[in-house]
Amino acid sequence: MTAMAFEPLRLGVNIDHVATVRNARGGIHPDPIRAALVAAEAGADGITAHLREDRRHIRDDDIARLKAAIPIPLNFEMAATSEMVAIALRHRPHAACIVPERREERTTEGGLDAAGQMAMLRPIVGELSAAGIRVSLFIAPDPRQLDAAAALGAPVVELHTGTYCEAYEESAEAFAAESRRIAEAARHGAALGLEIHAGHGLSYETVGPVAALPMVRELNIGHFLIGEAIFRGLDGAIREMRRAMEAARAAAEARA
């Protein structure tokens, strides 16, 4: 049996909640663009920023400043709306990740229903792709959603790891079951020709099993890193996450 190749695992750092802290008081501090530059220096491979319709954290001028300032790719998280499509086309980020969005939620909850919204999503995926923007769909680790993403022509999916991370706090059995679910979804998506990313809620304790999957090419992590930065600084928090990711990847490759 031929061993599966382990390609380098990228880390995208989400800087939304630096903006959340800034907006809690108003003004310009802390500046999410400064956080993005620190992240790049600490080893992040990309920066993720979600411009919500209600602008509760990242603001329009943040996107313009990020695009101008950062030396690494920008992943623009967006709802599937005409307003956000227009903004993405204006700024031309490296990538656009389409996420579900509800005004009452504290942060993005659950995955996009790609299977149930194909008619609405198809022209958006097509328009962004035609502009040279790498399109990703943020979906649950569900074969039906993966099949829909492939049918829509999205080259990338980001598997929602929120339930998986919650299971870590519940029990070893629940965590093992969710780990298997993530692994099976990653295998299914890769077999469809999709590039597999993952994110939401990942911490030092939960990143290992996902980082160990050879099909996963990128992890997007934000809230945990911004919280951890209070205790060890953003640079230190990101470097520790990279160490955890790379250790899990190397151990899995050694076992393969």
From TrEMBL:
<dbReference type="InterPro" id="IPR036130">
    <property type="entry name" value="Pyridoxine-5'_phos_synth"/>
</dbReference>
<dbReference type="InterPro" id="IPR004569">
    <property type="entry name" value="PyrdxlP_synth_PdxJ"/>
</dbReference>
<feature type="binding site">
    <location>
        <position position="14"/>
    </location>
    <ligand>
        <name>3-amino-2-oxopropyl phosphate</name>
    </ligand>
</feature>
<feature type="binding site">
    <location>
        <position position="201"/>
    </location>
    <ligand>
        <name>3-amino-2-oxopropyl phosphate</name>
    </ligand>
</feature>
<feature type="active site" description="Proton donor">
    <location>
        <position position="200"/>
    </location>
</feature>
<feature type="binding site">
    <location>
        <position position="25"/>
    </location>
    <ligand>
        <name>3-amino-2-oxopropyl phosphate</name>
    </ligand>
</feature>
<feature type="active site" description="Proton acceptor">
    <location>
        <position position="77"/>
    </location>
</feature>
<feature type="binding site">
    <location>
        <begin position="222"/>
        <end position="223"/>
    </location>
    <ligand>
        <name>3-amino-2-oxopropyl phosphate</name>
    </ligand>
</feature>
<dbReference type="Pfam" id="PF03740">
    <property type="entry name" value="PdxJ"/>
</dbReference>
<feature type="binding site">
    <location>
        <position position="107"/>
    </location>
    <ligand>
        <name>1-deoxy-D-xylulose 5-phosphate</name>
    </ligand>
</feature>
<protein>
    <recommendedName>
        <fullName>Pyridoxine 5'-phosphate synthase</fullName>
        <ecNumber>2.6.99.2</ecNumber>
    </recommendedName>
</protein>
<feature type="binding site">
    <location>
        <position position="52"/>
    </location>
    <ligand>
        <name>1-deoxy-D-xylulose 5-phosphate</name>
    </ligand>
</feature>
<keyword id="KW-0963">Cytoplasm</keyword>
<dbReference type="GO" id="GO:0033856">
    <property type="term" value="F:pyridoxine 5'-phosphate synthase activity"/>
</dbReference>
<feature type="binding site">
    <location>
        <begin position="16"/>
        <end position="17"/>
    </location>
    <ligand>
        <name>1-deoxy-D-xylulose 5-phosphate</name>
    </ligand>
</feature>
<comment type="subunit">
    <text>Homooctamer; tetramer of dimers.</text>
</comment>
<comment type="pathway">
    <text>Cofactor biosynthesis; pyridoxine 5'-phosphate biosynthesis; pyridoxine 5'-phosphate from D-erythrose 4-phosphate: step 5/5.</text>
</comment>
<comment type="function">
    <text>Catalyzes the complicated ring closure reaction between the two acyclic compounds 1-deoxy-D-xylulose-5-phosphate (DXP) and 3-amino-2-oxopropyl phosphate (1-amino-acetone-3-phosphate or AAP) to form pyridoxine 5'-phosphate (PNP) and inorganic phosphate.</text>
</comment>
<comment type="similarity">
    <text>Belongs to the PNP synthase family.</text>
</comment>
<keyword id="KW-0664">Pyridoxine biosynthesis</keyword>
<feature type="active site" description="Proton acceptor">
    <location>
        <position position="50"/>
    </location>
</feature>
<keyword id="KW-0808">Transferase</keyword>
<dbReference type="InterPro" id="IPR013785">
    <property type="entry name" value="Aldolase_TIM"/>
</dbReference>
<feature type="site" description="Transition state stabilizer">
    <location>
        <position position="158"/>
    </location>
</feature>
<feature type="binding site">
    <location>
        <position position="57"/>
    </location>
    <ligand>
        <name>1-deoxy-D-xylulose 5-phosphate</name>
    </ligand>
</feature>
